[in-house]
């Protein structure tokens, strides 16, 4: 599959902004099943400073600073991505190792494989995800003794999908996941954080994945420009198999419709656009995303 993603962010300020420093995670990363063939970031007004770098997690990051007064900031990222991933087989889940075996391998400091060492950092607490006995208790319904880890993850994902309501008006970026667990409401970011918290509370390595999901309009309707949105899911580490993605918002394992932009410990590591401004007062934010399938 080949996609073009256009992500446009518009800030309108009530008063002039005299100076701003910004960081963007908007260029999709290349990985085993995904190749970002091109990505361009356009900023208006023209930045005084702009450069690209790779962060600790291997994500592409754009930094820019605007040093002239402005009341409108427009940031547009246009990227083209090829995805070629094989469908996930349920037999793979049934034949995956027991989750306790994976947990013990991650805790065994005698295991010196590079991938396992790297995965251990995703066992730790992060700004938006802290291990908790309530998260562990919720997860243990799916992770009973000796159950294959991927089979248990599929079950946990399905429970989040069926027991929780998608409600964009209930949470904000900083809503604690224990509130999400208590009220069983949230959005994709919350469900990803929740499942990550459940897995880490069991001693398993899980990371946050940000990106996009191709959406289709109802039958007979034309897709509206800018109607897509950023999306979030998670991945769990399994020795020999690597990182396996799970999307609890849609109860599916991402294959060829999920476009990965970045990954990290949680949302704070991969925020699409963040920064510091001087001045501006109140502001209005508008985000428009288009995910378009194009000819190979």
Identify the notable features of this structure and list them briefly.
C8orf32 fold; 296 residues; alpha+beta; 2 domains; 7-stranded antiparallel β-sheet; 7 helices; globular
Structure description:
- This protein is of the alpha+beta class.
- It has 2 domains: 2-83 and 271-293, Immunoglobulin-like (Sandwich), CATH 2.60.40; 90-254, C8orf32 fold (Roll).
- The protein is 22% helix and 38% strand.
- It has 7 helices and 13 strands.
- The chain has helices spanning 90-94, 99-107, 114-119, 133-140, 149-163, 177-183, 188-201, and strands spanning 2-24, 34-44, 49-54, 60-66, 70-83, 165-166, 185-186, 206-213, 230-238, 242-246, 258-264, 273-279, 283-293.
- The strands form 3 sheets. Strands 1, 2, 3, 4, 5, 12 and 13 form a 7-stranded antiparallel sheet that branches. Strands 10-9-8-11 form a 4-stranded antiparallel sheet.
- Residues 180-250 form the Transglutaminase-like domain.
- This is Transglutaminase family protein.
Spans of at least 5 consecutive residues with low confidence: none
Whole-number tally of structural domains: 2
Share of helix, binned: 10-25%
Rg is 20 Å
- CATH-derived architecture of the largest domain: Roll
Q: How many DSSP helices?
A: 7
- Would you tell me the structural class of the helices and strands? alpha+beta
- Portion in beta strands: 35-45%
The total of beta strands comes to 13
Terminal Cα span: 7 Å
Q: What name is given to the CATH topology of the largest domain?
A: C8orf32 fold
Global shape: globular
Largest sheet: 7 strands, antiparallel
H/E series: EEEEEHHHHHEHEHEEEEEE
Mean pLDDT over the full residue set: 93
Question: What's the quaternary structure here?
Answer: single chain
Q: Which CATH class of the largest domain?
A: Alpha Beta
